[in-house]
Structures are given as structure tokens and as C-alpha cells.
């Protein structure tokens, strides 16, 4: 404990951080709450001196928007699909990586590379991989030129090329591309955490299991997974939080229009909705949507924590 | 089940790729462990005793030699097919399972014709738990148990599948002194009750001597001596074994044999018939000294420690290798407060060792 006559020094040293946090984190949060409850708040009008009544009409408007429901559906769908998938894949990869002795370091580095690569750049590469250049889809006597590597592979094995992301593509095809991209992008961090967890498990548990003649599948389900459960819980919880904030991945593949050409906004997400509202100078509506998103993440995280409390062995 | 080790050797490759220095952890170990006995593998750290244990368990593959369980060659058999029970030094209890689940775990692994019904499993788990007296704690987690209780759970888990051989790696090293005494009696009792051939590893000679039917003393991968604890203590084959066994440790002197007599610091102290004239290393057990006013060994008296039954006398002698010598004499003998104390020696507690290779030089008593 710092003696009280010296405490002003402590405050002085903390001041730069505190001031920055107050200005750029605490005040925006408070202001968001304030703006969300000011009816139809509009920042440019506010500068002009307009005043606003207190009310909840912003929330009502947000919920009535058809676009908002679409954004919410997209966000939840992507979350529910990608978080379990990426967690299971990361777990399997981490377990395999742990068992490989030669080149382990090199492989670890390779698996971690996507994490340090710009996600927009990755998105553009994925967009190119799933792309289809050439004529309109399915027209009579028209040659379809497939440019993306995915369609090339499909054709190589004798399949019909699929319109993944271009104009006229199906919603499910868009979602498949997004899931592949988001899972791939989410893997490195999860692998890193789980591999770290695996390496901290005492190998004597495995020796003991071996002496007792335990099958590999049983070792995995009864020993590895329970002993890894704190890390799994962490990865799932942060995965859901990140998933609800999905935005840049959509931009990476579909661009700012948030959808295939001809159907903009089809894959818009919650965060995308907030940005759109801000761009349309509907600050109040954006604030309300942000608070709704916050509420959803809070509830989901609390449920996650509750579930993991029962299944986690620290 | 008798266990036969035939020229067992384990060589670890060098860690440093350039030097190519291999580490011979166990060197040409041959020994037959009789059925139903408790064997202690004893030696300082790095002597290869744990490696030997892990080779018997199947967790490590020998570089050479063979292992037989009974008449069956198990050298190539992996750990899960050997039917051994292994208790790890830090027990390796699964922290997320209750005591009951831990003990049941090996049974649930059984497949095919060995597969047991739920009732049979529970029955055997409770039998094992009763044997080690933890049947009251079945629903606790390992973290809720004391060290001694965890140790018992580990033993129960190893015993529950009725192993052919029970292996214990430093079973008492994580326990406090009192529990250690109690637990080693317990291990002895459990071993007697089950009759399972048991091999345990320890660096504590007292522990090994107190409960083993036989001890194997190892040094740097080489077996030094095998025998009943008392025999090894009374008749060590070399200086290392003599020094390693016994508390307080043996007193070592530089001496000389001439004309069948042993001289320490130029004074004749004992008849050693049949030994050629040479310089020797002399080991004298603490209980090998008898108070004798006219005795040949005159030592400078440092202190007298009364320990109830015995008296421990700390003294100095010019020929001693260590700074002090410790002798243990009966408390009935009063040691007078004086500058010096004189002893005569009990011939069967005096061992002579060669200066060249530290091997024992026998003399007729």
C-alpha cells in the first residue's frame, strides 16, 4: 500500500492512461447509452442546436427494421456454425501437432501465420479462390469460365462449378464461403491456446493411462478433453464474443456492399448495421443497435460461463 | 509371477549431437525376482533404478536384453499388454475424476472376454479401496485428499486390475516423515495380503531395508549388490554399498595392512589374517566400536549425543576420511567427559576395501 502522502505521485503516473481511457473508452460508452435514449438523435442536427426528447423510440425502430432482423440472423447463423466447427478443428489439429515430433516448431509457425496476416487481404484471396469470372450463370449456349481454384478443383473431379459469391449466387453458397473463411481465420489463435494447454498437461497422466491399457479415443475423451477444458471454455467464450462482432470478414470477401453483386446487404451483420446507421447519420439508432448487440453478447457469455462452470475442471 | 531380467540394458542417445556421448542408464542387469516378493531398487539419483522400473512396466523400451514375466518374454510387449500396475512418484491421479472414477478407470478399459459388468467393476473397486482403507473417500476428488490418501488411491488404482507385477516409483518420497513410516508398513501389509510381486524404487536406504525382501543396490547403471537387506548391510561387496547403507553412515578411514595386521595412523588396531600387505580403505560401522580404556583406537572426543536407547559419540581420528567419526554404543556405557575416548573394534563390523577399485578385501575372522 502506498502511503497517502505519496499517493498523488501514483495518480500522476497513472494519469496519461486514465485520461486516455476516460476520453476514448469510458465517455464513448456513457455517450452511447445517452444517445441511444435520445429520440431520433442525429449528430449533424445536434451541432445545429437541435434538442431531443428522452425515450426508447430508437430501440423500437431498430427492432422494426427488416434489415436488422436479417443482420441478426446472419450474425447468429455464422456464430453458431463457425465457433463449434473451428473449436473442434483446432482441438484436433492441436492434438495432432503435439504428437508430431519432427518439424513441430515449423508447423506451429505455419499454422500461426493466418493470425498475423491482414484479414482483408486474406478475404480478397478467398474471394479470388471462390470467384467465378466470365458469363452469367447458366445461360443457354454460354461458356462458363471458371477462374477460382475451388471451382477448378470441382470441375477436375467432374462436378458442376458452383456460383459461390458472384452475382446470382445462392444464400447458402455465400454462407459456406463465409464459414470456410471465418473458421480458417479463427483457427490459429485457438490452436495456439489449445496447444499451450496440451503441453502443460503432465505426461504422467498419459503414461498412467497407457499402463492401464486405455484406448486412444478414450484417452482423448476422458483425459485430454477434461484436462483441457479450461482452455476450451476460454476459446469458446472468446469465439462467441468475436463471432457476434463479425464484420471485416464479410467486407474482405464481398466488399463494403456486404453481399454479392445485385443483392447488397444480404450478408450484413450486427456491426455492419451499426456502421450503416452511422453512415446514414442516424447516431441514435446506431447507439441503440450497439446496446442491443452488447446485451446479446452479455447474455450469451453468461450462458457460456454457466455451462462451462459445470463442465470445466480447473 | 516371477520376473526375470536378462542382460537388461538401456542406452539414451546423447543430447548433444556433436559429442555423440551416449548415456548408459542401465548396464547389463541380470536378476530373477522371485514370485510374490517385495524388491527394493536402491541407489542415488541417476543410477538407473527408475529406468529399470519403467522398462519393466513397458513404458520404456530396453536397448538390449530381455524381460520375462514367468516364462513369457514380454520384452516386445507394450505397456498396456503387460498387466502391470504402476504407481507414479506424484501418483498421476486424474484430477477431474473422483476417487471411485479413478479406481474404476483401468477396469473400464478392459475389453473382450475380460470385460466386466458394472456390478463386478464396482465390487472390485470397493475391494481394492478397502484393502488400502480409502473406501470412505470414494466420492472425493484427488485435490481434496491428503498426500497419504492420494498415495493409497494410486495403489488401489494399480491393484484393481489385479496386475501380475506391481511397480512403485519412489512411493514415499512425497510424504512427510511420519506418514512415510506408516505408509511403508502399509505397502508391506498390502503386498503380503495380495502376494503380488512388487518392485519399488527408492533412494532412501532405510525405506528399502525396512520393508524389502531383497534389495538391489545400483550405481551409475550398474548393479552393485543384490541380497537380503541385512546381508547386504553386514557384508557389502564394495565401498559404495558400504557407504550407501546405514544411518548414521559407515566411518571411512585410510589404513594400511602389514603382516596380517591393520594399522590406522600407524597404530595397530585389528588382526586381519589372510590379507596381503597394502594400503587399504577401511570402513567401520558406527556400532563396530566398543568402549575400552585400553583399546587401540584413541579418538579425540567432540560430543556425546544421548538418544535414549543408544549413545552416539562424535569424535575425531587422524586417519578418518570424514571430519568426524560417529559411533553408537549402548546407553548403559557411560562416556566420561574427557579429551579422548578409546575403542576396541568388533572385527565383523570392520570392512577392508581395495584402494584401486574399492572392492572388498575379505579377511578371516
Number of strands of chain A: 0
Query: What is the CATH architecture assignment of the largest domain in chain B?
Result: 3-Layer(aba) Sandwich
What fraction of the residues of chain B are assigned to beta strands by DSSP?
Answer: 25-35%
- Unreliable spans of chain B are none
The description of the largest β-sheet of chain A is: none
| CATH class membership of the largest domain in chain B | Alpha Beta
Distance between the termini of chain A: 31 Å
Q: H/E element string of chain B?
A: EEEHEEEHHHEHEHEEHHEEEEEEEEEEE
Shape annotation of chain B: elongated
The DSSP helix count of chain A reads 13
SSE layout and pairing:
The complex is a heterodimer of chains A (314) and B (365).
Chain A: H1 7-36, H2 43-47, H3 57-64, H4 66-99, H5 104-112, H6 119-130, H7 149-156, H8 171-199, H9 203-211, H10 216-244, H11 248-254, H12 270-279, H13 283-311
Helix pairs in contact in A: 1-13, 3-13, 4-8, 4-10, 4-12, 6-11, 8-10, 10-13, 12-13
Chain B: E1 3-12, E2 23-33, E3 38-42, H1 49-57, E4 64-69, E5 72-73, E6 84-87, H2 99-108, H3 118-131, H4 147-159, E7 165-169, H5 177-194, E8 197-202, H6 205-211, E9 214-219, E10 222-227, H7 229-234, H8 239-244, E11 251-258, E12 261-264, E13 267-271, E14 278-284, E15 289-291, E16 297-306, E17 310-316, E18 325-330, E19 340-345, E20 350-354, E21 360-361
Parallel strand pairs in B: 3-8, 3-9, 6-7, 7-8
Antiparallel strand pairs in B: 1-2, 1-4, 4-5, 9-10, 11-12, 11-14, 12-13, 14-20, 15-19, 16-17, 16-19, 17-18, 20-21
Helix pairs in contact in B: 2-3, 2-4, 3-4
Amino acid at each position: 500500500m502506498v502511503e497517502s502522502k505519496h499517493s498523488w505521485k501514483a495518480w500522476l503516473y497513472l494519469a496519461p492512461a486514465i485520461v486516455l481511457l476516460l476520453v476514448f473508452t469510458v465517455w464513448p460508452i456513457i455517450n452511447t447509452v445517452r444517445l441511444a435514449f435520445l429520440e431520433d438523435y442525429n449528430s449533424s442536427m445536434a451541432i445545429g442546436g437541435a434538442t431531443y426528447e428522452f425515450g426508447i423510440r430508437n430501440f423500437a425502430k431498430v427492432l422494426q427494421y427488416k434489415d436488422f432482423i436479417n443482420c441478426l440472423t446472419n450474425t447468429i447463423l455464422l456464430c453458431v456454425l463457425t465457433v463449434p466447427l473451428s473449436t473442434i478443428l483446432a482441438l484436433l489439429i492441436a492434438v495432432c501437432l503435439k504428437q508430431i515430433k519432427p518439424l513441430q516448431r515449423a508447423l506451429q509457425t505455419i499454422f500461426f501465420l493466418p493470425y498475423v496476416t491482414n484479414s482483408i487481404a486474406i478475404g480478397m484471396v478467398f474471394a479470388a479462390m471462390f470467384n467465378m469470372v466470365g458469363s452469367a450463370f447458366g445461360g443457354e449456349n454460354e461458356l462458363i469460365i471458371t477462374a477460382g481454384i475451388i471451382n477448378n478443383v470441382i470441375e477436375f473431379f467432374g462436378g458442376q462449378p458452383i456460383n459461390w459469391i458472384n452475382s446470382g449466387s445462392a444464400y447458402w453458397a455465400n454462407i459456406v464461403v463465409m464459414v470456410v473463411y471465418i473458421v480458417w481465420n479463427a483457427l490459429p489463435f485457438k490452436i495456439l491456446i489449445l496447444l499451450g494447454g496440451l503441453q502443460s498437461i503432465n505426461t504422467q497422466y498419459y503414461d498412467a493411462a497407457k499402463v492401464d491399457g486405455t484406448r486412444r479415443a478414450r484417452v482423448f475423451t476422458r483425459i485430454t478433453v477434461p484436462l483441457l477444458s479450461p482452455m476450451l471454455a476460454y476459446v469458446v467464450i472468446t469465439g462467441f464474443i468475436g463471432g457476434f462482432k463479425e464484420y471485416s470478414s464479410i467486407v474482405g470477401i464481398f466488399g463494403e456492399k456486404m453481399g454479392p453483386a445485385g443483392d447488397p446487404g444480404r450478408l450484413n451483420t450486427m456491426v455492419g448495421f451499426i456502421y450503416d446507421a452511422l453512415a446514414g447519420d442516424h447516431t441514435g439508432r446506431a447507439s441503440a443497435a450497439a446496446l442491443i448487440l452488447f446485451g446479446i453478447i452479455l447474455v450469451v457469455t453468461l450462458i457460456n460461463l454457466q455451462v462451462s462452470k459445470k463442465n470445466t475442471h480447473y | 509371477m516371477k520376473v526375470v531380467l536378462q542382460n537388461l540394458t538401456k542406452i539414451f542417445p546423447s543430447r548433444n549431437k556433436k559429442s555423440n556421448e551416449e548415456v548408459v542408464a542401465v548396464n547389463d542387469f541380470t536378476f530373477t525376482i522371485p514370485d510374490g516378493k517385495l524388491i527394493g531398487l536402491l541407489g542415488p539419483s541417476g543410477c538407473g533404478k527408475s529406468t529399470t522400473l519403467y522398462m519393466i512396466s513397458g513404458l520404456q523400451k530396453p536397448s538390449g536384453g530381455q524381460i520375462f514375466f514367468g516364462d513369457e518374454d514380454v520384452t516386445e510387449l507394450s505397456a498396456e499388454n503387460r498387466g502391470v500396475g504402476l504407481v507414479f512418484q506424484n501418483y498421476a491421479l486424474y484430477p477431474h475424476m473422483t476417487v471411485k472414477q479413478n479406481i474404476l478407470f483401468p477396469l473400464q478399459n478392459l475389453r473382450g472376454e475380460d470385460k466386466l459388468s458394472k456390478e463386478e467393476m464396482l465390487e472390485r473397486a470397493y475391494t481394492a479401496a478397502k484393502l488400502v482403507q480409502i473406501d470412505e473417500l470414494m466420492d472425493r476428488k484427488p485435490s481434496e485428499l491428503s498426500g497419504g490418501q492420494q498415495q493409497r488411491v494410486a495403489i488401489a488404482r494399480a491393484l484393481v486390475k489385479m496386475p501380475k507385477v506391481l511397480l512403485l516409483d519412489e512411493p514415499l518420497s512425497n510424504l512427510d516423515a511420519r506418514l512415510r513410516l506408516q505408509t511403508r508398513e502399509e505397502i508391506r501389509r498390502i503386498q503380503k495380503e495380495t502376494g503380488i510381486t512388487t518392485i519399488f524404487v527408492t533412494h532412501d536406504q532405510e525405506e528399502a531395508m525396512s520393508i524389502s525382501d531383497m534389495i538391489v543396490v545400483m550405481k551409475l547403471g550398474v548393479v552393485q549388490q543384490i541380497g537380503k537387506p541385512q546381508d547386504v548391510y553386514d557384508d557389502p561387496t564394495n565401498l559404495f554399498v558400504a557407504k550407501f547403507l546405514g544411518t548414521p553412515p559407515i566411518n571411512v578411514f585410510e589404513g594400511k595392512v602389514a603382516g596380517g595386521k591393520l594399522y590406522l595412523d600407524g597404530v595397530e588396531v585389528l588382526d586381519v589374517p589372510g590379507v596381503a600387505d597394502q594400503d587399504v580403505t577401511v570402513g567401520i560401522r558406527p556400532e563396530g566400536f566398543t568402549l575400552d580404556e585400553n583399546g587401540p583406537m584413541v579418538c579425540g572426543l567432540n560430543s556425546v549425543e544421548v538418544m535414549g536407547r543408544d549413545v552416539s559419540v562424535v569424535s575425531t581420528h587422524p586417519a578418518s576420511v570424514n571430519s568426524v567419526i560417529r559411533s553408537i554404543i549402548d546407553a548403559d556405557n557411560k562416556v566420561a567427559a574427557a579429551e579422548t575416548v578409546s575403542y576396541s573394534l568388533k572385527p565383523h563390523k570392520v570392512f577392508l576395501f581395495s584402494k584401486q577399485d574399492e572392492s572388498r578385501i575379505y579377511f578371516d575372522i
